Every structure is written in structure tokens, then in C-alpha cells.
Amino acid sequence: QAGLQDLRIPAELVDHVPREQRAIRVLETSQPPGIYLPPDDVDRSVLRPSSDHTFCEWKGHASYLHLIVTGVPAVPDAAWTYRSPVPSFAAITGYIAFYPQRVDACF
């Protein structure tokens, strides 16, 4: 397994990688744990709202975001957020999680 020192980030994405360590890890029922990043730690200039929404019985209504970075193919619904989660998940309000299977690297 590669160590963090071995990871290579393509030059066109370097400015878009979150660098803070304030993420919240949430166990999900139908996929690996979600890593929810504070909105201030994400370059939101590369995210565009999607018209897609879903409902999670545990967290509430999720809104999706497309990932649009110049020089690489767009990734539809690459991320999601809970604008008004249920009270027990209030800590992730506005935080952004990415689907690891829809992006090239997630670490």
C-alpha cells in the first residue's frame, strides 16, 4: 500500500484538494463510510448544484453536486451535502462528501 508520501496529484487538481483535517467520518448503510468535509475546506468553485436529491432515513434530504474542473472530464453527482439534516446529524450541516468511486483519488 502506498504511503502518503507516494501519492501524486495531477497538476490541474492540486489547488482543489482539501488540506484541513476537520472532516467528520459517518458510517453509511449502503456504502463505505462517508467523509464529510467542512464547506470552507472545499474549493466550491469547482462544484455545481445538481437537480438530483435523495432521502436518507437517518440523515434526511441530500442534495448532489457535480464536479467541474477545467482540463478534466466533468463528474456528475460526484458529491452530496445535507443542507438541513435531522437533528442527530446537525454536525454535518452543509458539509460535503465525495463518492470515492467517482473521483480518481480519495485520501
What value does the Rg take, in angstroms? 14 Å
As laid out across the biggest beta sheet, the strand order is 1-2-6-5-4-3
Q: Portion of residues in helices?
A: under 10%
Number of helices: 0
Q: Approximately what portion of the residues adopt beta-strand conformation?
A: 25-35%
Helix and strand sequence: EEEEEE
Report how far apart the termini are: 12 Å
Total strands: the figure is 6
- Shape annotation: globular
Short description:
The protein is mostly beta strands. It has no helices and six strands.
Write the SSE topology.
Blueprint: E1 24-26, E2 34-37, E3 47-56, E4 60-67, E5 75-81, E6 96-98
Antiparallel strand pairs: 1-2, 2-6, 3-4, 4-5, 5-6
Summarize the structure in words.
A six-stranded antiparallel β-sheet has the order 1-2-6-5-4-3, with no helix packed on it. Helices cover 0% and strands 33% of the residues. The two termini are 12 Å apart. Mean pLDDT is 80; it is low at 1-11. With 107 residues, the protein is mostly beta strands.
From the structure above, extract its key features.
107 residues, disordered N terminus, mainly beta, 6-stranded antiparallel beta sheet
